[in-house]
Fold Diacylglycerol kinase family lipid kinase.
Amino acid sequence: MKRMLFIYNPRSGKGVVRDQLSYILEEFSRDDYEIVVHPTIEPKDATRITQEFGDAFDLIVCSGGDGTLDEVVTGMQTGRFTRPLGYIPAGSTNDYAQSLGIPKQMRKAARSIMNGTVYQCDLGRLDDSYFVYVAAFGAFVEVSYDTPQDMKNLLGHAAYVIRGMQSLNNLKAYHLRYESREMSGEGDFLLGMITNSDSVGGFKGITGRDVTLNDGVFEVVLFHSPALAVEYPAMINSVLNKTPNKNITYFKTSKLEIWFDEPVSWTRDGEFGGKRKHAVIENIPRAIPIIVPGNDDLKTAE
């Protein structure tokens, strides 16, 4: 009999996985799996469970937010093994699941794992840690990890919007220098995102055009600090409408190195990623064997 390790975060989103757990397990049981279930109790539990036990299973499935998925993938990397990975999104935004076309309805997501195919996604490395779809610094990044879980459970995605509005008065520019094979530069920047997703913070299309999740490169977006405050609306409009703006730099790269004048806070997949004066971000091609539904819209690199 095939064996499945199912890890879920009971607090993700509005705690809906608790209500759906029986339905999810029924879907898996129909495919003749022996299922071992592990709820997470504290941060990094999913990493520990995956690293210690995951190699003994044929399939690993997790349910939670993007941070839970990040922990499971990290557990496979630090455990030095890979397994097909199923994901049932249960967070407040679920950017990565949206990019992959994974259903929002949990029972449908479970069924798609049983009927889906493995898609080899790229993985990111930020110094000695990993990220599934985004590493970012600067304005608003603290919103992703500072927003209280109870607030996210109550308000969902709106909780991030509210916290983001509260941080508008604290916008700060950071002086930095960056280098990649494709582009290098120096200046004052409000926000930087290194992504492998077409959705970040619930906003689809913010990472640029022609996003492919297994092409070996990241989409990099750097927001310069404008000379005048009146330029902010034009920057926002450019992001929403995917039009050029002199204060926004887009490019693709497989490796990026950044130097700051002071320690700067980072986020990895919505969780706190530490403070750094120097960062090296690298793409690990096709390192995540994630199961996706049959989806003709999902781009695949040649």
In short: Confidence is low (pLDDT under 50) at residues 144-168.
